[in-house]
Amino acid sequence: MAGGLLVARDTRDRDALPAERNGYIRVDCYGGLNQMRRDLCDGVGIARLLNATLVLPKFEVAAYWNESSGFADVFDVDYFIEQMNGFVEVLKELPAEIASKEPVHVDCSKRKGQFDYVESILPSLLEHHYISITPAMSQRRDRYPLYAKAALCQACYSALRLTRALEKKGSELLQAIPKPFLSLHLRFEPDMVAYSQCEYFGLSLASMEAIKAARGDRKPWTGEAARIWRNRGKCPLTPNETAFILQSLSIPANTSIYLAAGDGLMELQGLTSSYTNVVTKSTLLSNEDYTSMHGNTKAALDYYVAINSDSYMATYFGNMDKMVAAMRAFKGMYKTLFLSRRAFAEFTSKGLKGKELMEALWKVHNDDFVMGRGSALPDCFCDFKL
What is the rounded CA–CA span in Å between residue 311 and residue 323? Predict the structure, then answer.
């Protein structure tokens, strides 16, 4: 108790939930599946911090993603509730007196600096008794009391299991991929390139038109600004550049590669011309299975395969990659490496090419992996002994 509020402060009783709650919180999750997964895990920690009952989250996705799947379409709800028992109370359905109301939305997503949930959000929870939140992207989770950290980490690493149907499909995918195999998360879609504000030359006309359509008012950098931007590692690797780095790392041309990527991937022949044993969801699943799936369920399969692959490489460090790296570390699977866009850009801008470029790329990736910068370091403060 603190100032009459039901907010536990004693970390020694981190698993002991107070008998009463301060209200109900629903987490409103936006973006792709792994961004929503991140926000949900954050929301669990926040609910425990504020001693609130957690309502099943609402998945909000932009219309252009053609997405309609919700939390229960991707994750096993009953398992989630069971696994969170003792960490935070989770309800499938609200009490009748609350169910007829819309929650008061409290947007925390753009709050910066020393933002504190207890000071800023708890008063709204106490006043309205039912609120929805979008977690702050800049929050300092390491400052949470231990009981809130424990709830967040339990959600992140133990409580989110795919539905039985999705897990069955994921298992079928794993069985169908020739072993051993490398799971590669390759990001070279039109929206990704447009968002990066990078300009590329030598792409096909179809790719250039797709990028132009995705750009809208977002113009690419030019001149010296473009060079500086690229050398900072801000430009997604093309499939051709990715293949070159894999060759530099002595990845054999006949390696089985599962491509974890969206449907809009461009210039794929830049990879498959060098690596011929590349498989995807669409090539392994039946056409009926694949076309019936939405973006979230497809992303869930990529995540499932990636955390169970013999090795994992990524050309980016986004929400998917952070989640996969953390879970692989949790499972003791450390063959994980993030390909360095910055190193590739810096070396090529200095005129390195051919064997000299390959040797430089080998050294920087080997050093990163040995020192732990490129390997699977969890993006969490969890001690893995909850």
Answer: 15
Please indicate, yes or no, whether the overall pTM of this predicted structure exceeds 0.90: no
Whole-number Å distance between alpha carbons of 176 and 183:
13
List beta partners, residue 133.
27, 106
Separation in Å, CA 77 to CA 68, 92, 256: 17, 8, 34
Angle of CA points 188, 261, 335, to nearest 5°: 105
For 119-176, write each residue's pLDDT tens digit: 889 999 999 999 999 887 666 777 788 999 999 999 999 999 999 999 999 999 999 9
* 43 and 132 Cβ atoms separated by less than 8 Å: no
Name every residue whose Cβ is closer than 8 Å to that of residue 283 and which is 6 or more positions away in sequence. none
CA distance 330 to 250: 27
Where is average pLDDT lowest: 60-74, 153-167, 183-197, 248-262? 60-74
Nearest to 174 by CA among 334, 74, 278, 302: 302
